[in-house]
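Box S2. Input/output pair 1.
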Amino acid sequence: MPLRHPATRQHAKRVAYATACRRLVVAGALAALPLAGCSLGLTDLPAIPHHVDDDPPLARTYRSNLASALQKPGAIFQKPDRAGPFEISEPRHTLHLTGRAWLVCLKTEAWRQPVTYALFMKGNRVVDYRAAVWTDRCDEQTYESLVMN
């Protein structure tokens, strides 16, 4: 390999450094590109088209079914007798991991702290539940007391 002049080696290093910097700038710009949509106000997602007639109907006895599920130890609460009074919202359609379902928000007290849960129902039974999150919009709902059997 022929020996290079020290100035030529410095020039090669500068060119390599400049190329690496350009690549970082391009990568950063490409990474920030998806965030540009948020800053443009494009945060409203289109509604999921569906026909309400295609959804399975919620049983008319969903309140009593829900009350009996809440009283079973381990079904939703490990010790349901320690939970405070229950309040539920009206059911509404939602898209769940298992497909279309009904969302019912549940307010209660657990360990003397107010908590809100999102209950997902199909037909007569609760198929899933979790602590309510912002997208459930449980804080916007009106609630009624749930009469326990």
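Box S3. Input/output pair 2.
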Amino acid sequence: MTRRRRLLYRLDPLLQIGLVIALAEAYRLLRRLIPTDWPQAISNAHHVLRLEQVSHFAWEKGIQDTFLRFPDLVKAMNWFYLSSHFIVTGAFFVWLYWRNREGFAIFRDGFLLATAIALIAVLRAHWFNLVSGSRMPAAVAANPLALLLVALIPLTALALQYWLHRDVRTIATLDALFAIRGSRGARLRAAATVMLCLALVASAFARTLPASVTLESGSLADAGAAYARVRACSGSSYVMQSESHYSVRAEIGRANPTELSRLNVEISPYATADGIELCELWVDQRLGAASVALTSQSDGRSMRITTTGQFDRTLNGPVMLFNVRYYRDSQPADGTRISTWLERGDFRSTVDYETVPKSIWSTQ
């Protein structure tokens, strides 16, 4: 073995660690570029709680209450959670590298591809969430930073291929990564890699949830000067939602094309014996009342609120606030719900919805 070969062999552990760290840091960098949206995080938590309640396994609160009696234990667990990502994972990879190179290759490929999937998913959800899957490649190519982050994935694979063979001519074959030739374990690794690659592609085409509706406590009288009232509400013959309201948020990724978007809210069933009606409606002052249109749908059992505007991260909060009511002699059905979604051009987001619980109605 030549001196150069011996040097490369000794540096191999550093390269392997460097490859893992490079892609992990690219993911961390991307996450730092995304501003923290605490209201959206709370909204997501409410959705998780609703799923737990519907599925009859909402026992998480009891466990949390038990552990919260021991604050020092909670702090220790938090520190372990933060440090285990780096210390435990790093120590495991170092141990596995010296113990079993074949096993290290399997976990390394899985770790790199899983990080790549997370990176693409974050780009999709927070940068290009209003771009259809077929247009994602063109949108990423037009954004230098996004292109650089995505390019790290194949560049990492090519660097690993070259390091394993030390021959430029073998880079295109990628046999070390995909085990075109090799042992049964290598072919199993190849199968797992292909499955992860398919997941990588699927994450780029996944539907996003840029619009969300949440039931929140508090009266609309506390909406504040940031909102303009589009619709007033009165009537002694109605039972009104007075101690709570619904808020609708729109999260537009930073790299979407600059176009007008349509934020839709649909109430169904509407103004029927088993339905509800829109009461007060407030929208963000920067959008204005002229941006809002109320339309009854052709089925006669639903009503849609459409707000057209340039939604972006400068709004930083709910775009729309409203409450509902029902006629005193009627009774809302259990399946009454409020849905929201966002449209831009030929793109339509996944629909988010909230059911209307009986607990929101005033007893007056």
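Caption for Box S3: The chain has a mean pLDDT of 76. The first strand starts at residue 211 and ends at 217.
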